[in-house]
Design brief:
Layout (H helix, E strand, L loop, with lengths): L19 H24 L12 H20 L7 H18 L4 H13 L7 H4 L13 H9 L7 H39 L8 H6 L20 H22 L9 E4 L14 E4 L2 H9 L2 H23 L2 H5 L4 H19 L1 H12 L12 H22 L3 H24 L12 H23 L2 H4 L7 H15 L3 H30 L7 H15 L6 H23 L7 H6 L9 H17 L1 H33 L9
Antiparallel strand pairs: 1-2
Length: 652
């Protein structure tokens, strides 16, 4: 029976250990990186470094380290960081950034107190759900919260620190367990996607090429062999840098002539006004144009096509009056069904690998020795971590079956996003409100779930409302891809990722509290987390039954997704990919669709009239656009931190 299962050779390749100095550099950079992200996203509400798949704050740090390397190479070659060291720092900063980003810790910290601070006699939050919220996960003392919301105070008093210490450390432990489960799932999936299906991992190609060394032993970087060192690359850097600088100067000083890189249309006439939510925008940002050129041609077409298709649905719904009647087209219900279709397809494609894993677990079959963890350890970590998460929810007051369903759906969605990134690398994956919370309330109804389950579920708003844009699991899999490409020690990658989660989450929590007690949450942004309790109050005030119309749209999305996948299997040239259908429905893609249309058009013309050779020659130009945009935008934002001016630069 065992011989019938195809198995790769049982070999272990030589692995280069991760150096202590690279880990130390990464740990030193993480707090500064977290504080930078907080100022950009939380205080300025401007740059969204963690809203895109390729994190421009981490890319900028990598560029700076490469520049320092060039100087060291001339004066002290022994101090030059190798490719493995540079990528170790990159991996650590990516994992720390997504937890510190706009959609995770920045929602979690106000979430655990908003339900009490904004409670009034009028909204009756006290009667509705305060008794359902576990005290060990929240901060409920309004006196201690006054400085947090109104500012002009300090976090550094014993009573403030003590109030946040227990829930903060508890949620920190939850973040670590969450990261462990995701990493274990990645170990179980990596071989199928990387070695059997040969997925391309487009997002990590730029950092890999930027750090590529002249040898295979992780030696010093030879800049003459680096892809970016070409005239076309420098042309892209200069072009993007100048455009970005002109746009930034106009924001710093409104008297400076405006440079139209971005325009939002506010449509007033029906039915076109239906596009105002989420919005209709035209932008020319070089960063997005560069990324759009690197993604596969069919995905580029699918992204801009389906974004316009979503707008078309809204217009049709407004014409026939369906938007008011059934909230047509119910974008997020369709997206939920679509990602579930991709998940089912992913399971089917990986059936051979899953049989291999089951064989290893149930028999004495020998394991392949080139994974970060053995399959047995990964399975124990995934199942054990999920058990701890469910136990966490049970102790908080959620029924066991609700907790199991919630996180099974959450991790299924996480796997789907990771698969999307590994296969096609879309510039963003904004699956807004397409997670398990709304799906469960649609299937069972808020009445059947009850106030206790709904209240605890609301405390995970930071996981399933907006955080699919910046998701830890894809970055972990991309770290495994980079480690295999450069032959880094796999187990060391696991350790540094867990260390980055701890330090990154802690520094983000500290930074958020430090800034909030100084300037006040109400002077920055708090509506994201406040929306969670507004929604909870709505569920409890007007309990609902199963929502048949939403489930119908979910089924429609599932069928559409499966249909598109089957068409791709049947017709090689079929241009539409369900990933475009999934990722392009909401706000993030309002600023991305037009740059992708530009880059898709150029790429299409180059491949049609010049072939693959012309496309490859043009790649450095578009890599240069990414680098130039990143360098100028990041430099301007850092200068803003130093000299106290803000820049509402939108990187897409």
């Amino acid at each position: 029976m065992r011989n019938k299962i195809p198995r790769p050779a049982q070999t272990r390749f030589n692995q280069f250990p991760i150096t202590t100095r690279s880990v130390i550099i990464g740990l030193i950079l993480i707090p500064f990186n977290s504080y930078w992200i907080l100022y950009l996203s939380y205080v300025w509400d401007s740059n969204r470094p963690t809203s895109l798949a390729l994190l421009f704050n981490v890319l900028f740090t990598l560029i700076v380290l490469i520049a320092i390397n060039e100087v060291l190479n001339r004066f002290s070659p022994k101090l030059v960081l190798s490719q493995t060291e540079l990528l170790t720092i990159y991996v650590m900063l990516c994992q720390a950034s997504v937890f510190a980003g706009r959609d995770m810790i920045q929602v979690l910290i106000p979430l655990i107190s908003n339900g009490f601070w904004y409670a009034t006699n009028e909204n009756e939050w006290n009667q509705l759900f305060h008794s359902h919220l576990p005290t060990w996960l929240v901060v409920d003392d309004r006196k201690l919260l006054r400085g947090f919301y109104q500012g002009q105070s300090t976090f550094y008093s014993l009573e403030h620190i003590y109030a946040w210490l227990k829930p903060g450390l508890t949620w920190l432990g939850f973040c670590l367990i969450l990261g462990i489960v995701m990493f274990c799932l990645n170990v179980l999936l990596r071989r199928q996607w990387q070695e059997y299906e040969k997925l391309t991992y487009p997002i990590v190609q730029l950092p890999y090429e930027m750090t590529k060394s002249s040898g295979t032993d992780g030696g010093s970087i030879d800049s003459r062999q680096r892809l970016l060192f070409s005239q076309l690359a420098w042309l892209g850097v200069i072009l993007a840098g100048v455009l970005n600088l002109l746009y930034s100067l106009q924001q710093i000083s409104p008297s400076f002539p405006a440079f139209p890189l971005y325009r939002e249309f506010h449509l007033t006439e029906r039915p076109w006004s239906a596009m105002n939510n989420p919005g209709f925008r035209v932008s020319f940002f070089p960063f997005a144009i560069g990324i759009g050129f690197l993604i596969p041609l069919d995905l580029g077409f699918s992204c801009w096509f389906f974004h316009l298709f979503w707008h078309w649905q809204r217009i049709v719904g407004d014409i026939f009056g369906w938007r008011g009647a059934v909230e047509f087209p119910q974008e997020m219900a369709q997206v939920r069904g679509a990602w579930m279709g991709i998940f089912v397809f992913t399971l089917w494609m990986g059936r051979r690998q899953f049989k291999t894993i089951i064989s290893v677990l149930l028999t004495e079959a020998q394991e392949v020795q080139d994974e970060a963890l053995s399959y047995r350890s990964a399975m124990i970590g995934a199942v054990g971590g999920l058990f701890l998460i469910v136990l966490f929810c049970y102790q908080a007051g959620m029924l066991m079956w609700v907790a199991v369903l919630f996180f099974m759906i959450y991790f299924a969605m996480s796997i789907t996003i990771t698969r999307i990134r590994a296969e096609l690398g879309p510039p963003a994956h904004d699956l807004y409100n397409a997670g398990p919370d709304l799906f469960l309330t649609e299937v069972f109804g808020s009445r059947q779930l009850g106030g206790q389950n709904l209240s605890v579920m609301t405390l995970f708003f930071w996981l399933n409302h907006l955080s699919y844009r910046a998701h830890p699991m894809p970055h972990q899999l991309e770290a495994l891809k980079l480690s295999h490409q450069t032959k880094m020690n796999q187990f060391h990658i696991f350790l540094v990722i867990m260390l980055a989660i701890l330090v990154g989450s802690f520094s983000a929590m500290w930074g958020y509290l430090h800034i909030s007690y100084k300037i006040g949450l109400e002077q920055a942004r708090s509506w994201y987390a406040r929306a969670a309790f507004n929604r909870l109050a709505g569920w409890l005030t007007n309990p609902s039954e199963m929502e048949a119309s939403s489930l119908a749209f979910t089924l429609g999305g599932f069928v559409t997704s499966i249909g598109l996948l089957l068409l791709r299997l049947r017709f090689v040239q079929w241009p539409l990919h369900p990933v475009g259908y999934v990722v392009s429905s909401w706000w993030t893609f309002t600023g991305l669709w037009f740059p992708i249309l530009i880059s898709w058009t150029i790429k299409r013309l180059l491949l049609s009239y010049g072939g693959v050779r012309s496309y490859r020659r043009a790649v450095p130009l578009f890599l240069g656009l990414i680098v130039g945009d990143v360098v100028v935008a990041s430099s301007v934002s850092i200068l803003g931190l130093i000299f106290n001016f803000s820049v509402r630069y939108l990187s897409w």
